[in-house]
Amino acid sequence: MIVLLLLATLAADAAIQVEGRAVPGEEVVVRVLDADGRGRPGETVRVVHRPGLQGQRELAIGITDSRGQVRWTPELWGVARIRAGDELQPVRIAPLEPPRGAIALVVALIVAGLLGSGYGLVPPRPPRRRRSQV
Amino acid sequence: MVSVRRWMAESRSWPGAVALGLAVVVPASLGPRWLAQGGLAPLAVATLVALCVAAPLAAIEVRAATRFGSARDRGELRPVDRVLGATAEVLALLLVASIAAPLVAAAGLTGQSMALGGWLLVGLATRRAGFAPAAVLAVAAVLLGLVGGAVAAAETPPWTLLEPHWASWREWMPGALAVGLLLAPAGLGQWATGPAVPPGGARIAWTTAGLAILLAVGSAVRAGARFEAALGVPPVDSLAQVTLTLAVGAGACAVVGRAGDSRARWTRVGLGVLGTLWFTGPAAAALPVFLSMVVPLGMAVILGIVAWHATGGARLLAAFGAALAVVAAGGAPVSLPTTVSGAGALALTIVGMFWYVATRAVETR
Q1: What is the pLDDT at residue A133?
Q2: A chain contacts of residue B232, beta-carbon cutoff 8 Å
Q3: Could you report the per-residue pLDDT of A80-134, keeping only the tens digit for each?
Q4: Is residue B161 a contact partner of residue B224, using CB atoms and an 8 Å limit?
Q5: Which residues of chain B does A108 touch, with a Cβ-Cβ cutoff of 8 Å?
Q6: Whole-angstrom Cα distance, residue B164 to residue B162?
Q7: Which of A6, A16, A53 is the best substitution to test chain B (most B C-beta atoms within 10 A)?
Q8: Which of B62, B142, B147, B160 should we substitute to test contact with A (largest number of A Cβ atoms within 10 Å)?
Q9: Among residues A45, A91, A93, A92, which one has the least CA distance to residue A68?
Q10: Distance, CA of B220 to CA of B32 (rounded, Å)
């Protein structure tokens, strides 16, 4: 959390700023600034979802207006990078709800590990004695 | 001390604690690059292979260990059994050395000195305490991995890196198969040639696999949380490096502390030092090919010998395991070294392994 706050503070001085909390389906404003802190019009802004990971997707956001702003509605959640010209700005798009598939998989793997560990420590049953015939 | 030694000799769990030393080496090294291919999907497949194939295979190897151990005690090892023992030894040693190599390379010259000192320390520790350091270090690695993952996930949700991607299975499936076999570990010969498991103790392989799976999950969750916190730029993780160092130490102790005279122990230490420096320096370019192809092929050889010893359903399962290892080697998405030095280093590594196995397999009169 502290790291995120620090990154948000640093992002306030960056060339690309995201105003508002990025969440899929909700519009936010992306501002592209020049060295003097003024908006850069006519800049093409793109977003790369899951940079460097399987399922990486690059989508166009739009072109900045006279105020250097462009409106963006994130389509995917997760870590992304907004690109405008040579500048890059990492951003985290929070999911609307926790990803159930990944959570279920983590829980299943932990349960598998615990069950496997426990099964190996259970002592085997001694063989049954046969009843002697009278 | 006498009672502890007797407990080590008679305990059903002790051989599994030793095998755990080798089993934790690979899951502790699965970092963000492995997760980037498919998220948790490769780990899920590896877990399935570990519990359904590798652990039963390890139980089959345990049964082979009784014949191997008694033949070795009588001095009546057949050539194929000597090949099994030598292959298990060199493969496990070079696996530990290859996983330690990136740690050593990151530390520069200091790392090389620490590698030499580390292997010497392993030799001294196993001389004094046998296999005990392997078990202690392995359990410490598992606990540290779990705690590290829980703490990191409590600070930042780890989901971007962990999101499973099943569609890209062609890229990660061979590696997942090999990792699954190594989680038990099956195919390294540890169960067949390591400390004998008393009757009724073959189930311990599932415990070994289960603990290795927990370490892999803890490492993955921590890597995912740190990736999320840094917004995609994975920083150097000191805790993960400590966990990996403990795991490498456990693997080194498990291999060096195997049964044999003191000269054999120091030969293994020397081979470990040479292997670590080899993969840190001249053979660094050959490292991906060694891990992705040579190790699975070595496992296929060991499982093939185990299949040869086994009968009935055990033989079928061991043969299936060998086939899985061959598929893992053949399907690995890694290209051969493009430089002359890298190709030469890879060739020398394979020739060196062959020479080691061949010389150990020849009976000295």
Answers
A1: 45
A2: 51-52, 79, 81, 90
A3: 999 998 889 999 999 988 899 999 999 999 999 999 999 888 776 666 665 554 4
A4: yes
A5: 44
A6: 6
A7: A53
A8: B160
A9: A45
A10: 8
Under an 8 A CB cutoff, do A119 and B210 touch? yes
Contact residues, chain B, for A7 at CB < 8 Å: 231
Q: Cβ separation of A109 and B162 shorter than 8 Å?
A: no
Are the C-beta atoms of residues B343 and B351 closer than 8 Å to each other? no
Question: Which amino acid does the sequence have at B111?
Answer: G
- Nearest CA-CA partner of A81 in A6, A9, A14, A2: A14
The verdict on pTM exceeding 0.90 is no
Beta strands in chain A (DSSP E): 16-19, 28-32, 44-49, 57-63, 69-72, 78-84, 87-93
Cβ contacts of B229 on chain A, cutoff 8 Å: 3-4
Selection from A47, A54, A52, A97 nearest residue A75 by Cα: A47
Q: Are B203 and A122 inside 8 Å of each other by CB?
A: yes
Residue B73: which residues within 8 A CB-CB, separation 6 or more? none
pLDDT tens per residue, range B216-273: 999 999 999 999 999 887 778 999 999 999 999 999 999 888 765 566 888 899 999 9
Considering only the beta carbons, identify the residue of A7, A101, A114 that sits closest to B210.
Answer: A114
How far A15 CA lies from chain B's nearest CA (Å)? 17
Smallest CA–CA distance, residue B280 to chain A, in Å, is 26
Judged by a CB distance cut-off of 8 A, whether residue A81 touches chain B is yes
From CA B40, how far away is CA B42, in angstroms rounded?
6
The CA-based angle A126-A114-B225, given to 5 degrees, is: 170
pLDDT tens per residue across span A40-58? 899 999 999 999 888 899 9
On the question of pLDDT at B2 being above 80, the answer is no
Q: What letters, b where the CB count within 10 A reaches 16 and e where it falls short, cover B219-245? A: bbbbbbbbbbbbbbebeebebbeebbb
Contact A52 B36 (CB under 8 A): yes
Shortest distance between the Cα of B160 and any Cα of chain A, in A, equals 5
Instruction: Report the candidate in B296, B295, B325, B320 with the shortest Cα–Cα distance to residue B310.
Output: B320
Tell me the chain A residues in contact with residue B162 when contact means C-beta distances shorter than 8 Å: 102, 105-106
Least confident stretch, A75-84, B16-25, B211-220: B16-25
B171–A116 C-beta distance less than 8 A: no
Structural tokens at position B236: 């150097």
The DSSP string of B192-257 is: HHSSPPPTT-TTHHHHHHHHHHHHHHHHHHHHHHHHHHTTT-PPP-HHHHHHHHHHHHHHHHHHHT
Q: Which value does ipTM take for this structure?
A: 0.88
Phi then psi for residue A97, to 5 deg, are -140, 155
Q: Which residue has the tokens 């067949």?
A: B192
